[in-house]
């Protein structure tokens, strides 16, 4: 358990960061799910639009430290390939 004032403050900060990062991850997963659903429905226009909306969200997650850069790039690349294959 945190005893010093510094450790107590760090514990509070960790809780706050955890909540913020969890919300960001959830938001990004929602965008990813929308792309997946559009791909599953076979609607290329909807899938392309969902992918365009998803890309800045993923990169925002990278800049905020929620995801690693390569992870986001890999996800975008795989989704883009699947959207392209719809046509």
TrEMBL record:
GO biological process: translation
GO cellular component terms attached to this protein's record: small ribosomal subunit
Pfam family, one: Ribosomal_S20p
Matching InterPro entries: Ribosomal_bS20, Ribosomal_bS20_sf
Domain of life of the native organism: Bacteria
A GO term for molecular function: small ribosomal subunit rRNA binding
Segments of this protein annotated with the region Disordered: 1-23
Signal peptide segment: none
Keywords, comma-separated and alphabetical: Ribonucleoprotein, Ribosomal protein, RNA-binding, rRNA-binding
Keyword Phosphoprotein listed: no
Protein function: Binds directly to 16S ribosomal RNA.
Similarity section: Belongs to the bacterial ribosomal protein bS20 family.
Name of the featured protein: Small ribosomal subunit protein bS20
Organism the protein comes from: Thalassovita mediterranea
Protein's gene: rpsT
């Amino acid at each position: 358990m945190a005893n010093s004032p510094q450790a107590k403050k760090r514990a509070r900060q960790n809780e706050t960061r955890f909540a913020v990062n969890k919300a960001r991850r959830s938001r990004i997963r929602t965008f990813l799910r929308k792309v997946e659903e559009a791909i599953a429905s076979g609607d290329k226009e909807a899938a392309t639009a969902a992918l365009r909306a998803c890309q800045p969200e993923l990169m925002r997650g990278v800049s905020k430290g929620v995801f690693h850069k390569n992870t986001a790039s890999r996800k975008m690349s795989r989704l883009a390939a699947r959207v392209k294959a719809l046509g």
